Amino acid sequence: MSPRKKRPAVPPALLLALLGLGYFLYFFHQVGLAEQPYWDERIYVNAARAYQDLAKPYPNPEHPPLGKQILVLGMGLWGDQPQGWRFFSALAGALSGVLVVLLTRELTGRKGVAAFVGALWFLDPLLYLHFRLGMLDPPLLLFLLAATYAALRFWKGPKISLSWLYLTGLFLGLALATKMLALVLAPVFWALAADRLRRGEKNWKSFLHGICAGLLLPVAVYYGSHALLGYSPAETWRLWLYNLDFHQYHRGAANMSSRWYEWLYVGQPLWYFWKQLEGGQIQAVLGTGNLVLWIGAELLALYAVLRRRRSPEVWAVAALVLIQFALYAFKPNTFLQYMVLVLPFLYILMGVGIADLFERFEARYRRILLIDFACFFLGSFLVFWNYLPYLQGRPMSRQAFEAVGAMGKALPPEQP
Q1: For residues 164 and 49, what is the distance between their CA atoms, to the nearest angstrom?
Q2: Among 39, 97, 189, 295, which residue has the fewest nearby CB atoms (within 10 Å)?
């Protein structure tokens, strides 16, 4: 009897491409149910329209222009309509999901854990909502995750790879040209790069490459995004100073704001949008989290940090979470939506925690662990499924709207 032939393995790149395609179709499906811009999307779509017309002075100078230039590209592909405003957000969400899987695999060495975290990417209500909105956070998140992946590959490499070093600088520059939050997170990437250069050949070339990749390249990308709009170096500098001072604008408390610790347990969901339709139906979008998924991720991330407290790479990812909480801890005017940039790094740490649990207890408690995480996935799915109609902007009865109406803090004015 001839031996059974082994099936050829599916190339990992193909699996990742299929996963990314699945994410994109998932986020982009029926993205036009809400036919008008809503929430902060109104600000950025308005700015993108001005960019299209090169109509200076441009609105929304509070943020750098790249995220709004990306909106212009989407509007060029699909027109000035919901698909155009939201196309690149869905694409950024898909690519971000792939990067979360890659980063989890990089830190854990376990394909199964990376796949599990990738499956949970489908079940976060807040991420699902924001990857269907034409806003700045989706491309910013993509660039930060790409910078994290490049920085960790550079830090872990047996030899110094200038390609990974300069890719880190490139993605950091793209993030900085999208939103100034990247400046606060930049020291994490600088620290990883500096530590790897320190462990390599200590000479003036290494120092020069570090300066070029970590400082000059991000500055060049930042200025380039402004130069495309006709800004001079002097105008770009003035906008830089204005962007740095932007947080002064947000010092006062708002009726829709919440404190950072309320994010941990989804304490303050927000109605992003609502309007009354003909026939008495309501169209509404609720910004909320997945309590089962978030609490589980927080506990597993804490376990991962404690278990791997001597791991610089784990602490680098943890720093990208902790810095954001520290930034908002003393601000009265913060919003649940800020968790969008925290969650992916939290999920990577969750993957590390899951891998460590299996490493420690798999021999004795494998079946129990598998059952526990199957229940965790099922609970996360049920919570997400319950909220799905309120995330897509589907028309609903007034009774269905009022059933969760008390959850959303500070119902905004009805959209026209």
Answers
A1: 35
A2: 295
Summary mean pLDDT of the chain:
88
* Residue 377 contacts residue 116 (beta carbons within 8 Å): yes
Give the span between the Cα atoms of 113 and 169, in whole angstroms. Answer: 29
With residue 270 as reference, give the H or E element that holds it: strand 270-276
For residue 251, pLDDT beyond 70:
no
Whole-angstrom Cα distance, residue 343 to residue 266? 12
Distance from the Cα of residue 220 to its chain's centroid: 24
pLDDT in tens, 197-250: 888 777 778 889 889 999 999 999 999 999 999 899 999 999 888 888 775 555
* Strand ranges across the sheet with 282-287: 270-276, 282-287, 395-396
Residues sharing a CB contact under 8 Å with residue 300, sequence separation 6 or more, in sequence order: 349, 350, 352, 353, 354, 357
Residue 395, SS3 per DSSP: strand
Q: Cβ(292)–Cβ(380) under 8 Å?
A: yes
pLDDT confidence bin for 10, thresholds 50/70/90: low
* β-sheet bridge partners, residue 258: 334
In which band, very low, low, confident or very high, does the pLDDT at 9 lie, cut at 50, 70 and 90? low
Q: Please state whether beta strands 270-276 and 395-396 pair in parallel, antiparallel, or not at all (unpaired).
A: unpaired
Q: Check whether 186 has a pLDDT greater than 50.
A: yes
| Separation CA 341–CA 178 (nearest Å) | 13
Q: Which helix (H) or strand (E) holds 152?
A: helix 137-156
Residue 255 has pLDDT above 70, yes or no: no
ω into 312 cis (within 30 of 0): no
The DSSP secondary-structure symbol of 334 reads B
> If we measure between CA atoms, which residue out of 13, 30, 163 comes closest to residue 90?
30
Maximum Cα interatomic distance, the chain, rounded to a whole number of Å = 79
Domain ranges of the chain: 13-246+254-407
